[in-house]
Design goal:
This protein is mainly alpha-helical and about 170 residues long. It has a single domain (about 1-120, about 150-170), classed as Four Helix Bundle (Hemerythrin (Met), subunit A) (Up-down Bundle), CATH 1.20.120. The chain is built from 6 helices and 2 strands; from the N terminus they run αααααββα. Strands 1-2 form a two-stranded antiparallel ribbon. The protein starts with a helix and ends with a helix. The relative contact order is 0.15.
């Protein structure tokens, strides 16, 4: 069963990669049309989904035996505490999700939540000059424009998530 969840985690990363490639392939990049926005939301959904799928791998590796529909960060922590076990892998993920630290994963989750549950993700399209055509997202909490364009941010998130999950997977018991 562990391989089933590993396969699912990898599929989620591949789906995110496909969405990113489709966004990058558009000559209308920055139009914020329905195609672009739907692919951005799809990218974030699958990127965060890869992390969520990896929680299933942690559940199996540590023998927590939580039902598949109950595996979330808090329930997994609670079960592991009950078992007298700490998962460094889960601790690292939760640290990266901490909004107070404003890291890449926390920001990606906030963008996913904004686009999925609240309203469109705010953005700035640069017109003219050195940054012509670049699109930067706004932080949904502060409203501030990111220092990196949206495509570079997505690439960074995908690289970080892929590397993170490969590294954490190698440390599972």
């Amino acid at each position: 069963m562990a391989s089933e969840f590993k396969t699912r985690t990898n599929k989620k990363l591949e789906f995110a990669r496909i969405s990113l490639n489709e966004i990058k392939s558009r000559p209308e990049l920055g139009s914020a049309d329905n195609f672009e926005r739907s692919h951005e939301e799809n990218f974030l959904f699958h990127l965060i989904g890869a992390k969520d799928s990896f929680l299933q791998e942690i559940n199996i590796a540590y023998g927590s035996n939580l039902p598949i529909h109950k595996v979330k960060e808090r329930s997994l922590v609670g079960k592991l505490i009950e078992m007298g076990i700490q998962s460094p892998e889960l601790c690292e993920i939760m640290d990266l999700e901490d909004r107070q630290k404003a890291g890449w994963l926390a920001f990606a989750i906030e963008l996913r939540d904004q686009g999925t549950h609240r309203r469109d993700i705010g953005r700035t399209l640069e017109i003219g000059g050195e940054l012509n055509g670049e699109v930067s997202f706004h932080n949904p909490i502060s409203g501030q424009c990111m220092d990196i364009d949206s495509i570079q941010f997505f690439k960074l998130c995908l690289e970080n998530m892929t590397g993170l999950l490969e590294r954490l997977r190698s440390t599972l018991p």
